[in-house]
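Lines hold sequence, tokenised fold; shown next:
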Amino acid sequence: MLQYDDSAAAFVALSFVTIYIVPSWYHIVRKFKVALFSSDEEIGAISRTTAEKEKAAKLKQTSKGLKTLNSPWFLANLVITVLLTALFIWLYVSVQSDGEVNSFDPFHILDVDSSADMKEIKKAYKKMSLKFHPDKNPNNPQAEATFMMVAKAYEALTDPTAKENYEKYGNPDGKQSLAVSIGLPEFLLNVDNRNFVLLSYLIIMVGLIPMAVWSYYSNSSKFGEKDVMYDSYAWFHHNLNEHILIKGLPEVLSGSAEFRERNMTKSAEGQQEITNILRKCKPHMQKPNFNHPVVLKGNVLLHSYLTRQTDAISEASQEDMNFMLRYSSSLIDAMISVCKHQESLAAALNCIKFGQYVAQGMWLKDSELLQLPHFTSAEVAHAKKGKNGVKGIKEYIDLDNDSKKGLADFSDAQKEDIFKTCKLLPDISIESKVFVDDDEDNNVYEGDLCTVAVKITRNNLEDGEKAGLVHAPRFPFPKREAWWVALGTTQGKIISIDKVTSPDKVVEHKIKFLAPKQGTYEFELHVLSNAYVGFDYSDTVELKTLDPSSLPEYKIHPDDAELDDEPTLFEEMMNANIEDDSDSEEEEDSDSDDESEEGGIRELTAAERKKQELQNARKKAASAAGDDSDSDDDSDVEEVHAD
């Protein structure tokens, strides 16, 4: 009879506890390492200019130190892990002291020393048999099992045959093929504990486990690609189209499902604050399409950030705005993927440019020069006037430091910040070419797999140097430099759009597509930064496709042609089944063959005869498939020709 075994139960419990505490401690140690020992570069808290010092200080405050671990989920997991670790240690010690799983030790069962004499053994047996006798412990399976083990232990120490078996095989019953016990504690068999056991089973199996599964499924089923909620994708699909403008995208981003709970204004003071901010930002906003409080609040907060009017907002609104900016990068990427699904090139390009404005904290009518630290509208106006006046950021960077205007009121440290920023901003050159892999000539024919190779070279980097973080002092989180490469038709349809994240000096991106019908085509190639305004690149890619009928006729090699006459595995199997029939037919036709030879008909060679047999086998296999399939195939062919 299978018995519950405390020692085996300890091993089982150790296994389950280990499954939880090992990954949990790994996660906890990583959290502590990041909070206490991570470098500034690892958390993005670097200050290459004085404009980035405030951002770096805030990142250190929010990403380093024990206060960053003050999360309810982290603290709850820490407490559970510590308790389970203590349980693990107790189980390990008990297993070490208890010995092997379900080992039969008569001395241990009778609670006597291994050197005890027969008198002590009999005394211990009498005492324990009276204690655990079933008559004295009615309806107690645990006492009954212990009584049987005591009797078996006494037999192993007193009966010569049983003692010999125990010394030889470790069991008084002799050699055992397999010993099995149940890895559950023995107290579960106690009648006094049955209500507790049933209640615990009910709570765990009917309550906790289904609740955990439901909670995990309900949370995970809300998210799609890029960890963006499905409701956000649905919102983007509803509001993004080929006519969407950049000034309408803040409202689209504000309606994301990730912000709906956070941006629900619950107090009259909060509503009044949003009204005051709206009054200031309204000249820069598109007329709202939605008056829902959640969308309106997010739209207003985003415009206050984009127009650089965040000084007057409260600390709570500032936290809500930062929450939106934290997820803005992944949400804007999701918006671009929706535009890609809709094949709308203009909408995708507008979403990319919107991401640039979000990264730099500026808006549509702002000058590109506001990406430089310490620059205001006054310095921008001065930099655009007179000799050496510039219109864009790229022209300003190309000027010598002595020729740069708008620096008269700046200190030497501020000027140094501007010069350093000009070196940090990207300086790229783009090369592109169209080709067909493994082609014998340089021509492109209809149906060829074309490749557009786009080569991006960062001229502001040295050989072997990597692109670092984006210089974006107003964006409160670190952001990696990347480039969007888009190829589309002149009608505004997307062929390909991808985000190139490699930080290398030279990056090559390949776009593959099938060549269209014969003719001359022009495609639009766009290379846009994910974080900088004014560094976009656009070009036209020309493609001329030729008629494939002008290609030389493909000639099959004789060796390849002979392979067509080789039987397939199916034909060999069919041929094996009809060999007897073909032999009998040859015998019956032997006389007619002789007569035909006299009439001048040539006898078939062995190779020809084998080929004829294969053809006959194919015909029989085709006929075995049935007339219905033939009629279906014929109808399919007709439909294809009709199309």
Q: What stands out?
A: Residues 6-37 form the longest helix (32 residues). The radius of gyration is 41 Å. Residues 595-600, 627-643 have pLDDT under 50 and may be disordered. The chain has 23 helices and eight strands.
